[in-house]
Structures are given as structure tokens and as C-alpha cells.
Amino acid sequence: MRPALLIIDMINLFDFEGGNQLGVHALKACGPIATLRQAFADRNWPVLFANDNFMDWNQEFTDLVAKCRQHPGPSSEIAAVLGPKPGEYYVLKPRHSGFLCTTLPAILADLKLQELVITGVATDSCVLATVQDAHMRGYKVRVPQDCVAAQTPSRSTRAFALMRESMSLDTRGAKTVLRSLAAEQ
After folding, report:
1. Residue ranges making up the domain that contains 103
2. Contacts of 178 (CB under 8 A, 6+ apart)
């Protein structure tokens, strides 16, 4: 079963209340996400972005990437590392979950994917909502703990507890998740 890497809301200006804190923590997750992304590319496994459009329906994902590259701080650093590459997929989402009112379910079905490695921000908001939707839809889900971020570590801790206890999800680090995926192929 071929997995997909789903990167949530990492292309982000972090220009909202609590955004500065989130940006600092997101920057720490950027390296492990980039490592996973390269490993997925090396194996020809799909990489997808589910990104907030911040209710600007006239903005394309590439426009947001360009804005982030020009924005000082974590936004530009993250966009430089995680900006989309040819062959990667993206959906713009109007709310928290990557599944709500997006083409994500259609893309996953078309690619015949049943397993997701979910990364990004915020652990206790958009990541959690997407994880719950994926789990309810029957996808096998993994959430590497070093590939997500929230405004505070305690918010991530609470979200991880919920993921592990109510959904029995694998939340080990990226390297361990990658080894596990490789062994299953």
C-alpha cells in the first residue's frame, strides 16, 4: 500500500494572533518534513499540500507561496524549503480539515491511496481536524511528532494524546515512521 505525504498549512504568513509563536515552532518542523518529502520523492510516493486560502478565493496557491517567500521570518524560510515542486499536488481549503469542501478525497481516490502521513500546522487545529476526517474515512494515518507544530508544546501534547488514545495512531518521529513505511512496502 503506497502512502502519501500530506503537508498542511506550512505555506503560511503566520500573520494572525498567535502566528508568531506558531511560525517559530513550524520552522522547527520544517527540516523533518523536508526529509520526509525527499524520501517520498525518492520512492515515487505522492506529496500533497492542503493549505488554507485565508478566505481569498481569488488567490492561487502559487500566489501564496510567492507572498511567503517575500515575507520576513519563518514564512520565507519555510517557503524556501517546502515550496511546491513539479508533480506535487495541492488543494486549497476553506476551513480546518483538508477534506472539508476540497478535492482532496477525489485526488486520493484517483491515486488509489489509503495511507497518509500527515504533517504541518497546527497540531491541535487543522492537523487534528484533517487527521480525524482521514481516520473516519478509513485511511491509515500516521502523524510524525517532529513534523507538526502548534502555538505551544502543550497544545501539541494534548492533540497527540487524543490521536493516540482515541484513534490509536502512530505518532513516532519521522525517521521511525519512514523506516516503518519502507519495511511495509
Report:
1. 3-184
2. 35, 36, 39
